[in-house]
Amino acid sequence: VLTGGIAVLAAVVTMAGFLATLALLSPVMTAVLAVAAVPAICLERGIARRQAALLRGITHGQRRLFFYANLLSSVPAAKEIRLFRLGGFFRERMLTELDGVQRASTRGDRRVLAVDAVLATISAAVAAGGLAWAVLAAAAGRLTVGDVAMFVAALAAAAGALTAIINCAGITYQALLMFTSYQEVLAAPPDLPVPP
Known about the structure:
By secondary structure, the protein is mainly alpha-helical. The chain is built from five helices and no strands.
């Protein structure tokens, strides 16, 4: 969480400088960039919530998967597994758990891919619109070639810093959600009887 906060702070400092440059050249483009960030923030927050829920959902399966894999590769357990011919049974159980975990992870990855595609499309549209405006403004004489170069660099850097802020904030939010789950586990009463 601390690392994510520091990364967000560093990206904010970077973005502030380039945003000021962008605001000098085009206040409208600065506003467009800010408005384009709103859906990105909402989508990234949704991804973080879904990823945290996914991790909570597959934790039991991962533990059972680890248990069966450890059991099947354990030398002390090998005698009993061979004696009672349980190798196939445990292998089937392990593969079933692996399949469930992989399916859930794949669904989560597909959602992330879809959201990332939407965010990339928004980012490309903002960059293309900004570049078209800068070229047209230069053709009309409102901007110089140096202004266009400065605008493109400022737009790219501000957009990159904004992306870093949004991504780090999403990762930090997901970490906070997972930490909340950890606190719930710590606060839960013991489920085993306490010896007298």
